Amino acid sequence: KAHSRKPYFSRPPVGLRPLFTRSRIPDSVFQPRPEDHEKYGGDPEQPHKIHLVTRIKSVIGRPYWEKKIIRDLGLDKAHQPRLHKNIPSVNSKLKIVKHLIRVRPLKLPHGLPTEEEMSDTLLTSKGELVIKRRLKPAEQKAVEP
To answer: Which parts of the sequence are annotated with region: Disordered (predicted)?
Structure first.
């Protein structure tokens, strides 16, 4: 008796979906909302100029395009902050890997450093760019007896 078997790949199993399908998360989740600015302390009129980006999760098991973006942004090492401009091209990359990173604004408590002060700056773990000012010796006046 000859058995008539269907080929194994004639139809995918009912319970499994393809690996990379269209996202099932609605697009409205990814759009900015006005209440986000109050919650996270941002100002839509005066956005910050520089992002402080830190990778907080591993890329093991993530798709190749996420690994490439992490490499392009210089976030190969976890918990090593990197500075990036707040521009649309960078923001689009950050949006793709936002579940792997933490993005904070760069705080400048002493204002923008000048060229001479750049060597004396320090980036703290809180995201502040602190200028370590060097003390200049005061001119000593001659003491007359």
So the answer is: 25-47
CA 99 centroid distance within chain? 10
CA distance 108 to 122: 11
Burial class (CB in 10 A: 0-12, 13-18, 19+), 51: buried
For CA atoms 95, 101, 103, 108, give the dihedral sign.
Answer: negative
> Is residue 126 within 8 Å of 106, Cβ to Cβ?
no
CA distance 41 to 48: 11
Q: How many CB atoms lie within 10 A of CB 69?
A: 21
Q: For residue range 50-102, what is the model confidence (pLDDT) as tens digits?
A: 999 999 999 999 999 999 999 999 999 999 999 999 999 999 999 999 999 99
Q: Which position has the token pair 């008796």?
A: 1
Q: Distance between CA 31 and CA 68 in Å, rounded?
A: 24
Hey, how many other C-beta atoms are within 10 angstroms of the C-beta on 108?
Answer: 16
